[in-house]
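agent> fetching stored inputs for the S-adenosylmethionine docking request
agent> found them:
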Amino acid sequence: MNPPGPYFESAGLTPGLYIVATPIGNLGDLSPRAAATLARAAVIAAEDTRVTAKLLHHLGVRVPMLAYHDHSDDSVRRGLIARALVEPVALTSDAGTPLISDPGFKLVRDARAAGVNIVTLPGPCAAIAALTLSGLPTDRFLFAGFLPAKAGARTTAIAELASIRATLVLYESGPRLAASLAALAAGMGNREAAVAREISKRFEECVTGTLSDLAARYAEAAPRGEIVITIAPPGEAPPPDAETLDEALRTALSRTSLKSAVAEVSSALGLPRSDVYARALELKADAGA
Ligand code: SAM
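agent> prediction call returned; pasting tokens
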């Protein structure tokens, strides 16, 4: 292993909360500064102490740990904040950057309010790594975490995201990938996208194509491992024809209220809400006639 660098030689850490990003696959991605901070912390607040224990074992150090989640009891959070005022407390999640679809937000919020010195150690993050692999525009992107698991909530979430003029970044799991890609194609149109899998691990891959192509590819066999979906921003597509609007409205009206159907469809098709509302009323009247 290379010499660990100047941070290993530094004296003890000042009191504070140290947010430590850890590898998302390849242990070589742990920075020397992250390693030194973990080794010198008085305690590590870990999402899962068994996972962080493996990292400490790799570093050859022993440091006391406490399990911490945002739904941990308030007293656990208060205790960590009290300690961070007088000694270095490190925060880790199982992989990647804490707080990014991982615990830590409430701890940082409350620690900041209590006047704790807060230090972040930037490092691996699957969302950013996938974005860099995708070949999609990186000047403007929106990270939206995991889509909801239930189909109805997922459709609503996709409708909200559909009109955002940015590359979208989503976390996903293998078993849900094909269904999510199909729902994304239905709600957003057939945009270019990328599926990045097992980044920085042995079977890393990044497959690109349209949402429908990718949905068909992964419907055949659910892939293993950890996955990030990236989706191109909406293009300057011509406005949808009347038939497309009617079909989208009929589908939405068959499962939700007039108000929600109008909101969903106007967002998904990029049409003014007033126009969609007027057409929805006509369709309802025709159906009732
Ligand atoms: N905080 C982490 C980060 O900074 O990336 C993310 C934690 S979130 C609970 C876990 C999700 O991140 C996985 O379900 C997957 O979508 C994504 N992920 C984590 N590691 C990955 C990897 N090596 N390759 C692809 N996706 C990964």
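agent> quick read of the result: Residues 24-25, 93, 95-97, 100-102, 125-127, 171-173, 196-201, 226-228 surround S-adenosylmethionine (CB under 6 Å).
agent> awaiting further instructions
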